[in-house]
Task: inverse folding
């Protein structure tokens, strides 16, 4: 597909890397010469210097002949103008990043007028993801499928605890919940497992389970089940506002620490039910005075990765049960985990993931891509696809299928019933299925998973 990206910042560069790696014809436009040079040197794409809102520049970039225009500059208004121009030129699809809450609320009303196929709000998506994690605090990550009826959750296997040394085929009996381990990271190796593999202390695993069984799963593995009643948010960003609104509606007591006095005053006016403190959230004495050790959850969402790391390390040190850390520099994820910070959220990654899902659905020919989720630091993908009459091997028991290497069918959703599949189960037209594979294998169609005859 021919794709034009306007804006080479955090989200734009992440998208450019993912889409060019998937062999799309990508052109990137940015008004910063340094960004254009850096991305042009690093990635296999065409870069153009200038304003993406320029009609002449969009014509030069052949936006009118493109399949998709993605506008992800820091300015909402500029993104919308770029999309309007692109659609007028004849671009088939347009996606805009819209961060302002007021604009975002009006997007559903304006999408048709603006010619938008999709609008994305990284801050809102990040806040929603953090809120979801706080509802089941024992999990490090949650990804939903089948309209929320099934989930893939991330867990650590700890020395001497119930999962340590257990063979995968023993798990349902051991945990008294029917689950399927669909991905394992063991040191530097990523495994799409078979049932006879035994878990080891230090493994990071992704487990598929019906959403209705998540509490039972937490209980089975001996992790904390109670959702956060007292939450401390450090940093008064848009993410903090969205998250506080989610939490307050759920009845959680919310405290926010923000260094900037003017921003703190605005937060207090906007969120009267929350407690807002104007102070330095990286200062140990401030955290002590606000009883950080008594919190159920601490969320570090300042604009500095280094500050979020320091805050999170201290919160873990004083025994906070759940610590969630926002980072922008995803290349430092392994370093964060070495320091004990294992629940990490990246806004640019969430935004890019949503757009990649849309791109995959545009490419699909026989079964629509409903969702794409990246697991184990993007080394593994979980993709939800439709089963149609054109899908090969529908009705064949899974034990008789010949799948390509490192592919696993993790879940079947049939008429709103979630099936954790065994060898005798089969895919039927009308089902949706979750396919787990190494990210190096790009799947855009359900027929891509089968070995050729």
Result:
């Amino acid at each position: 597909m021919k794709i034009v990206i306007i804006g080479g910042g955090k989200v734009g560069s992440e998208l450019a890397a993912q889409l060019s790696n998937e062999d799309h014809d990508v052109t990137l436009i940015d008004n910063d010469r340094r960004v254009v040079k850096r991305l042009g040197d690093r990635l296999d794409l065409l870069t153009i210097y200038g304003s993406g809102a320029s009609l002449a520049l969009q014509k030069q970039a052949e936006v009118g002949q493109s399949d998709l225009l993605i506008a992800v500059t820091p300015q909402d208004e500029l993104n919308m103008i770029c999309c309007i121009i692109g659609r007028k030129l004849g671009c088939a699809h347009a996606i805009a990043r819209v961060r302002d809450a007021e604009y975002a609320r009006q997007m559903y009303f304006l999408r048709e007028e603006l010619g938008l196929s999709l609008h994305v709000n990284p801050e809102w998506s990040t806040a929603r993801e953090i809120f979801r994690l706080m509802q089941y605090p024992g999990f490090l990550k949650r990804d939903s499928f089948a309209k929320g009826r099934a989930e893939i959750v991330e867990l650590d296997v700890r020395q001497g605890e119930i999962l340590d040394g257990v063979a995968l085929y023993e798990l349902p009996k051991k945990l008294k919940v029917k689950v399927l381990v669909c991905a394992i990271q063991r040191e530097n190796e990523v495994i799409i497992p078979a049932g006879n593999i035994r878990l080891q202390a230090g493994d990071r695993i992704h487990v598929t389970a019906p959403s209705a069984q998540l509490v039972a799963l937490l209980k089975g593995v001996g992790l904390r089940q109670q959702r956060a009643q007292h939450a401390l948010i450090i940093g008064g960003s848009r993410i903090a506002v969205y998250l506080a609104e989610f939490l307050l509606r759920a009845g959680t007591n919310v405290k926010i620490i923000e260094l900037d006095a003017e921003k703190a005053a605005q937060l207090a006016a906007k969120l009267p039910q929350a407690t807002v403190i104007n102070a330095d959230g990286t200062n140990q004495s401030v955290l002590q005075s606000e009883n950080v050790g008594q919190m159920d959850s601490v969320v570090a969402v300042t604009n500095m990765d280094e500050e979020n790391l320091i805050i999170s390390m201290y919160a873990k040190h004083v025994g906070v049960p759940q610590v969630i850390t926002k980072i922008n520099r995803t290349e430092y994820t392994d370093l964060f985990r070495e320091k004990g910070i294992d629940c990490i959220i990246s806004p640019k990654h969430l935004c890019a993931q949503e757009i990649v899902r849309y791109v995959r659905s545009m490419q699909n020919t026989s079964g629509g891509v409903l969702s794409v989720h990246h697991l184990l630091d993007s080394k593994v993908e979980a993709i939800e696809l439709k089963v149609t009459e054109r899908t090969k091997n529908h009705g064949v028991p899974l034990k008789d299928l010949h799948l390509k290497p490192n592919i696993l069918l993790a879940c079947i959703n049939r008429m709103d019933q979630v099936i954790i599949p065994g060898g005798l189960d089969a895919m039927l037209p009308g089902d949706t299925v979750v396919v787990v594979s190494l990210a190096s294998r790009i799947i855009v169609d359900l027929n891509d998973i089968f070995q050729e005859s």
Notes: The radius of gyration is 23 Å. The domain at 226-320 is CATH 3.40.50.720 (Rossmann fold).
